[in-house]
Design a protein that fits this description.
The chain has one helix and no strands. The protein has about 120 residues and is mainly α. The termini are far apart.
């Protein structure tokens, strides 16, 4: 009986020690879970911020692309206007040269006519 009582006492002690270890492990697990949840929340905030930044950059890129398209269209229009102006200038220059030649020819004809008379 004494050995049985001693055996029961040892088992109680062993079970008590195991229970203490289990409770300590539960506390560690609880702290680790809390830490993981904090990291998870931090990562969610970082992900949200990165997503917001990506959306903002996409909007900026779209505006820049629209500005580039607008600038290209304005440049093409300016180049077309320049070509039209050059063509008009050539035409005006040709008309002025023709008119000057006519006037010169008329003056020469008039001088020839005066010389003959």
């Amino acid at each position: 009986e004494a050995s049985m009582a001693r055996l029961v006492k040892e088992k109680e002690k062993s079970l008590s020690s195991a229970l203490s270890q289990i409770q300590a492990l539960k506390q560690k697990l609880k702290r680790a879970t809390n830490n993981l949840n904090q990291h998870k929340d931090s990562l969610a905030r970082i992900h949200s911020q990165l997503s917001n930044d990506a959306n903002r950059l996409a909007r900026i890129d779209a505006m820049r692309e629209a500005d580039n398209h607008d600038l290209k269209a304005r440049l093409a229009k300016a180049e077309l206007d320049l070509e039209r102006t050059r063509a008009a200038l050539k035409t005006s220059t040709a008309l002025l040269a023709a008119e000057a030649n006519r006037e010169k020819q008329q003056a020469s004809d008039a001088q020839n006519t005066n010389t003959i008379m």
